[in-house]
Automatic annotation (TrEMBL):
SUPFAM superfamilies for this protein: P-loop containing nucleoside triphosphate hydrolases (SSF52540)
Protein name: Dephospho-CoA kinase
Keyword Chloroplast on entry: no
Entry's family note: Belongs to the CoaE family.
EC code(s) of this entry: 2.7.1.24
Compartment(s) of residence: Cytoplasm
InterPro entries: Depp_CoAkinase (IPR001977), P-loop_NTPase (IPR027417)
Gene that encodes it: coaE
Pathway the protein contributes to: Cofactor biosynthesis; coenzyme A biosynthesis; CoA from (R)-pantothenate: step 5/5
Source organism of the structure: Fulvimarina pelagi HTCC2506
Length: 201
């Protein structure tokens, strides 16, 4: 860090229902460029990944875009199919991430955020200078998630089982943002993180 023309890469992650997307939007509102892995997947499902997915999973493309429900039916619960899908998507998402960081480096950004849901689980933290974990007490997380349409307690438990426990993420974080105390408190924490990083730039 502190290299001429370098951008500090801040990994942003957090378990389901912790407020990661809202926090990413707060970084963006403060003028920090944010790369969203989820948004990249959405773009790929309507663009570059379409022919590759149709070839691997025939019938999952509708009107020129990947139908997420049909794709889900083809891969959920099938480890081999999931591995095939990841082998298509992950390299494309990484390409987009690399292009994003290159653009921000050229623009002279001091800090850039990589918003990656399974950052630690996929080893993405190795590509970051620092990591911020978005967190909240379990009861708040649970009530947020169960308020989502189509969510059940069993589904929530399955999702949690696939993610690194919040306590482990917090232990590995360079910064924590607690979203349980309201938007203003979270925004204050975001500004503190940015100020702390810029001091190193």
């Amino acid at each position: 860090m502190g290299r001429a023309g370098a951008v500090i890469v801040l990994g942003l992650t957090g378990s389901i229902g912790m407020g990661k997307s809202t926090t990413a939007a707060m970084f963006a509102a403060e003028g920090v460029p944010v790369y969203s892995a989820d948004a990249a997947v959405h773009r790929l499902y309507a663009g570059r990944a379409v022919p590759l997915i149709e070839e691997a999973f025939p019938g999952t493309v509708v009107d020129g875009s990947v139908d997420r429900q049909k794709l889900g039916e083809a891969v959920v619960g099938n480890r081999e199919a999931m591995k095939r899908l990841e082998a298509i998507i992950h390299p494309l998402v990484r390409e987009e991430e690399t292009a994003f960081l290159e653009r921000e480096r050229e623009k002279g950004a001091a800090v850039a955020v990589l918003d990656i849901p399974l950052l630690f689980e996929t080893g993405g933290d190795m590509r970051c200078d620092k990591v911020v974990v978005v967190t909240a007490p379990h009861d708040i997380q649970r009530s947020r998630v169960l308020a989502r349409p189509g969510m059940s307690d069993a589904k929530f438990k399955n999702i949690l089982a696939a993610q690194m426990p919040d306590a482990d993420k917090r232990e590995r974080a360079d910064f924590l943002i607690d979203t349980s105390k309201g938007m203003d408190a979270a925004r204050f924490q975001v500004r503190e993180v940015i100020a702390g990083l810029k001091a190193f730039a």
